Amino acid sequence: MDSEIKSVQDIVEILKRRRRQLLVPAAIILLVAVVAALTLPRKYRSTATILIEAQEVPSEYIKANITSFADQRLQAINKRIMGTPRLIDLIKRLNLYADLRNKVSLEDVVAEMVKDIKFTTISADVIDPRSGRPAQATIAFSISYTGTTPEVAQQVTTELSSLYMEENLKEREKQSLGTSKFFQGEMEAVQASLADIEGRIAAFKKRNIQSLPELSQVNMQSYDQADRDIRQLNDQMRTLREREEFLQSQLSNVQPELAANDKEALRQLHLRLADLTSRFSDRYPDVIKTRREIAELEQRIRSANREPAVGTPDNPAYINLQSQLAGTRSEIESVRRQIADTAKRRASYQSRIFATPHVEEAYKSLMVERNNLQQKYDDLSKKSMDVRMAHSMEKEQLGERFTLVDPARLPERPFSPNVPAIILIGLALGIGSGVGWAAVKEACDQSVRSADALAELTGVTVLVTVPHIVTATDRGSARNRRYLATALVAFGAIIGLVAVHYLVMDLNVLLTQIYRKSPG
Asked: pTM for this one?
C-alpha cells in the first residue's frame, strides 16, 4: 500500500482506482434527491402588496376622525380577518382543503389555513406629524397564501387583499361615524344646558331687575340725584317756611275789614289836621291837603253805606296776604310730599346699591357658567363641522386608504419544494458519501501499487517493472464505459431540462429572457 500521498498524481491515481466507490454513492443519493424533489407535493405562493396612502386633502385643512396609527388599525383588521368565522366562510365559499375537511374538524382546517397565510408589514423612517420626531411607520403590507395550485393561491390571495381593503373602509367609516355621533350628542347636551342656563338667567333678571350689575352705575347716579333733590327740596322748604313766617307777621298787622281801616285812617287824619292848624294857617298846603283827604275819606265812608259781614275780611291787602300765605302753605305741603317721595326713592336706590354686590356675585356665577357653556358649544360646533367634513372625506375615500399596488399574480413556479436546493443538497451529500467510502476503502486496501512502495516495503531494490498490458477485451470495456458515460450524461441533461421546464421556469420563457439579455 502507499505510505503517503506525495503528489497530485497520487490523488489522481486514487480517484481513478476508487471511481466506482466515489460515483455509486453519489449517484444513488443524487437519484434519491431528484426523486424526492420530483415527487414531493407542489405548493404555490401568490403575494399581493397593499400600500397605505395618506389622505389626499392636506391635514391643515381637514383633520381625519381616525386617531389610531395605521399599524395599530392594521393589526386590529388582521385579527378580525384571521378570525375563525371569516376563514370558515372563505374556506366554504372557495371550497378549500376539500380532502382535509373530510378527515379533521373545521378548527384544524382553519389552523392549517392560518399557517398557509403570511402577513408582512413594510416599514420606513418617517417624521411623526404629532411629535415632529423621526419614527418607524408602516407604509405598506403584503399578504401571501400558499396553495396546492397556482389558481387557488392567486384566488385566495385576491380574496384576502379585498377583505383587508373592505375592512379598512368599514372600520374607518365606522370610527368616523362614531366620532360624528359623539360630537352630535355632546352638542345636543350642551345646547340643552345652554337653554336651561338662559332660562335661569332670565328668571334671575326678572327677580332682580333693579339690582343687576349693569344697572349699578344708573342706580348710583339716581341715588345721587335723589340726594341732591332732597337737599334742594329742604332748601326750598326752609325758604317757604321763612316766607310763611313773614306773611303771618304781615297779616297780623293788617285789619281784615276795610271799614275799620277807613275810620282809623279818618281818626288819624283828624289828629294830624288838629296838629297842623295849631301851628299853621288854613292856607298852609299840608293843612289844605289833609282837609281834602278827610273830605274824600268821609265821602267814601258815606258812599259805602253798608256793614260788612262779621268774620268776612274785605280788606284787599289782608285778602292778598292771606292768599299768599295759603299758597305758601300749599307749596310747603307739596314740597313735604316731594321730600317724602324722593326719600323713598333714595331709600329704594340705596337698597338696590346694597343688594348689587350679592346680586352681582350670583349673576356673575350664572354668566360664567353660561359663557363656559357657550364657549364649549362653539368649540363643539367647530369640531363637529370638522368631523362632518372628515366623515364626508371618508365616505368619498379621500382619507387614508389602502391601495392595491401589486395584485396577486398567478405563480409561474412552485414555492415548495425547493428543487434546486434539494438537488444541490443531494449532490453534496452524495459526493461526501462517495469521498468517505473511497477513503475508507483506500485505507483498508493493503495492495502494493508502485515499485517505490514495493522497495520500501521489502528493503530490496526493484530492477524491472512490467507495464499494464492492454488487451482487446480491455479496449472493448473502455469503449463501452465511454458509451455508457455519454448516455448517462445525455440522460441527465434531458432530466435536467425537464425538471427546469416543469419545476423552475418554462423553457420558452427562459429562452426568451436569454435572447433579450444577449447583446445585439
From this structure: 0.51
Segments in the chain below pLDDT 50: 1-3, 58, 61-62, 65-68, 305-311
Indicate the DSSP class of residue 104: S
Secondary structure class of 406 (helix, strand, coil) = strand
The residue behind cell 481513478 is 16
DSSP conformational letter for 42: P
pLDDT of residue 1: 45
Number of Cβ within a 10 Å radius of residue 411: 20
Q: Give me the half-sphere count of Cα atoms (radius 13 Å) on the Cβ side of residue 222.
A: 19
Q: If you write DSSP's letter for every residue of 217-244 in order, what string do you get?
A: HHHHHHHHHHHHHHHHHHHHHHHHHHHH
Residue type, 246: F
Pair type for strands 44-53 and 117-127:
unpaired
| Calpha distance 492→486 (Å, rounded) | 10
Cis ω for the linkage preceding 316 (within 30 of 0): no
How would you classify residue 266: left for phi > 0, otherwise alpha for psi between -120 and 50, otherwise beta?
alpha
**Around 211, how many Cα atoms within 13 Å sit in the side-chain half-sphere?**
19
CA distance 486 to 136: 59
The pLDDT of residue 34 is 76
Q: In this predicted structure, what is the pLDDT of residue 333?
A: 92
Side chain identity, residue 15: L
Strands of 427-492, DSSP E: none
Q: Counting Cβ atoms within 10 Å, is residue 88 exposed (0-12), middle (13-18) or buried (19+)?
A: middle
Kindly state the DSSP code that residue 243 receives in the 8-state scheme.
Answer: H
Which residue matches cell numbers 396609527? 69
Q: What pLDDT, on the 0 to 100 scale, is given for residue 500? A: 65
Sheet containing strand 117-127, edge to edge, reads 117-127, 134-147, 44-53, 401-406
Q: State the pLDDT at residue 395.
A: 61
User: What is the predicted pLDDT for the residue at 363?
Assistant: 80
Which three three-digit cell numbers place residue 470? 492492454
Angle between helices 285-304 and 258-277 (to 10 degrees): 150
* Per-residue cell: 157: 390571495
User: Largest alpha-carbon pair distance within the chain?
Assistant: 229
